[in-house]
Design a protein that fits this description.
Elements lengths: L12 H4 L5 H18 E3 L6 E3 L4 H17 L3 E2 L3 H27 L14 E5 L6 E4 L3 E5 L2 H5 L2 H16 L2 H22 L5 H41 L7 H11 L14 H22 L8
Parallel strand pairs: 4-6
Antiparallel strand pairs: 1-2, 3-4, 5-6
Bound molecules: zinc ion.
């Protein structure tokens, strides 16, 4: 890639050929350091420091745009008892979310930071065999009808929706965007630094960078995202008086589903056994949350 619009190499063609321009990498590292320091923020739900460069309004606008695109390409189920039930489950989770945030933040000595005014919640049920659901930034939720027979109960649907809503509350989409931005700038920097190398050398440098970027940074973050969504989602379901224990047989059924297309909440879990063990570890805390908000309610609705 050549950043000079005239197409001329300013650095002297013959002397520069074959040299790797380390100063460009240094400039990139300085930029990366500045970008990180100026865009980090602590999640009130997990206490983890996240790299987020957009504001919640920008995220919500992107979420809405993507949602409208999905809806325009899908068959939306207008009403019926299943739609009413799914909307009611979502409403219960949404209603309890600020209390859960306040509780989890207080546990870590943090202040609640979620700006609830940036969420304009909407729930759509989409006619599809896919076993899936999602919640986009800004609170745009979709549930595929294929999920209903696998979930089998309101409790299990609440666990899935709790997981999806948690991705939006945790701003995982914005975090991934900031990571992608860094990866792209890094790729450009490597490309520029290697600009005077011969094409074969350039391919090698870019190839090495790609491997590090994909497996060293992006994938572990995605798995962490899934674990966080499981954890916060379980607390939301429990605080909304659903039975969090429905999560265990649900993930076991999901595992048996298999199939070529992996649903969102299964895609980055290479080891389902680990996931179930982690959920079991979280269960006492979820049940305590449930007891706090739902005194006298029976475990099944
Ligand atoms: Zn997920």
């Amino acid at each position: 890639m050549n950043m000079d619009p005239t197409g001329q190499d300013q650095g002297g063609q013959s002397s520069g050929r074959g040299r790797f321009h380390w100063w460009i990498i240094l400039a990139f590292l300085l930029y990366a350091g500045w970008y990180y320091v100026s865009n980090r923020q602590e999640s009130s739900l997990t206490g983890r420091t996240q790299l987020i460069a957009t504001n919640a309004q920008q995220d919500a606008a992107l979420g809405l745009q993507a949602y409208q695109q999905v809806l325009s390409q899908s068959q939306v189920v207008a009403d019926g008892p299943e739609v009413a039930q799914i909307k009611q489950i979502a409403q219960r989770l949404i209603a309890v979310a600020p209390k859960v945030e306040a509780d989890l933040a207080a546990e870590k000595g943090l202040k609640p930071t979620i700006d609830w005014s940036t969420f304009d919640w909407q729930v759509s049920v989409l006619q599809s065999d896919e076993v899936n659901a999602f919640c986009l930034p800004g609170g745009k939720i979709a549930v595929y009808t294929g999920l209903i027979p696998v979930a089998q109960s309101a409790d299990a649907i609440a666990v899935v929706l709790g997981h999806e809503i948690s991705h939006a509350l945790l701003r995982h989409g914005a975090e991934r965007m900031a990571q992608q931005h860094m990866a792209q700038i890094g790729q450009i920097a490597v490309g520029m630094a290697a600009g005077n190398m011969d094409p074969q050398q350039q391919r090698e440098v870019m190839g090495a960078y790609g491997v590090v970027g994909q497996f060293g940074v992006l994938l572990p973050f995605s798995r962490k995202d899934e674990s966080e969504a499981d954890q916060i989602g379980l607390m939301l379901a429990a605080a909304a008086c659903f039975d969090p224990q429905a999560a265990i047989p649900l993930w076991q059924r999901m595992e048996q589903q298999g199939g070529a297309r992996q649903p969102e909440f299964m895609s980055t879990h290479p080891n389902p056994g680990n996931r179930i063990a982690r959920l079991q570890e979280l269960m006492p805390k979820a049940l305590a949350m449930r007891a706090k908000y739902c005194s006298g309610a029976s475990p099944t609705q």
